[in-house]
Amino acid sequence: MKILDLDMDYFMKSVATFVDESITERLPEIDYGDCVWTAEEVRNFLENNLGLSKENKIKGRIVSGHNEALWLWKELVCDDKLTTPFEVVHVDSHADLGLGYNSWTYILNYLLSYPPEERPSHPRYVDCFGKISEEGIGDYLLFAIAYRWISKIVYCGNPYGECNDYLWDTLKDYKENYIRKNPVENTIQLLYNPEMDFPQFNDPDSLKQNYIKHSQKEPEVPLLIIPTIEDVKFDGTFDYAVMAQSPNYTPESADFIINIFREYITEI
Hints:
- The protein is built from seven helices and twelve strands.
- With 268 residues, it is α/β, with parallel strands linked by helices.
């Protein structure tokens, strides 16, 4: 099955980064109001790049924070309406794969110790500030990979961003392919080593290689990165679609995009 996972901030010509998840204010219009795509540009992308059609609507939902997409997937999985693992077409200004979050160390050192079927029941962890956290707007896709729910990610990154905001430590053998202007393939493979925690950044390469050698390897998840609009080419064959408003990453003047997207889905 294939999921279309949209973030409203993709439709902006300036990318906000590292906005704290606790911030509730919208982006200031004076800085970002002129950066929002026009209605014509949005419709053209939905129809001609993603293949959406008003005559052939997709079951979908509009959410606020992007981590609520994972909540929808949990709901559908529990109702036997979504079969795992599934492909995710992630259209967003951010990869949402854990960069800037410390949940990835919890995932690698602890969450992966549970049997896969039990992992969705253990999303809570204590972050570096002593706060209890769980699947957030910037790491929910990494959690979904740890749950073994995702077979492939196509990351359609904002063409005005760098499109490389993911953790090298989660890539297979720590190897990254990166070409800014062309689609590029990487592979995510999470590791769990019951004998040692994940090495620190400044640890010697020999320690890292020893960690890899003796780790239990999770299934490989291809990560295709598409950094340009013209290379986003889909025919609309998605089983479900979700759009996140991401209020702390978008100005209020962008909210018309939600109403446009609503024309292409049957809300569930």
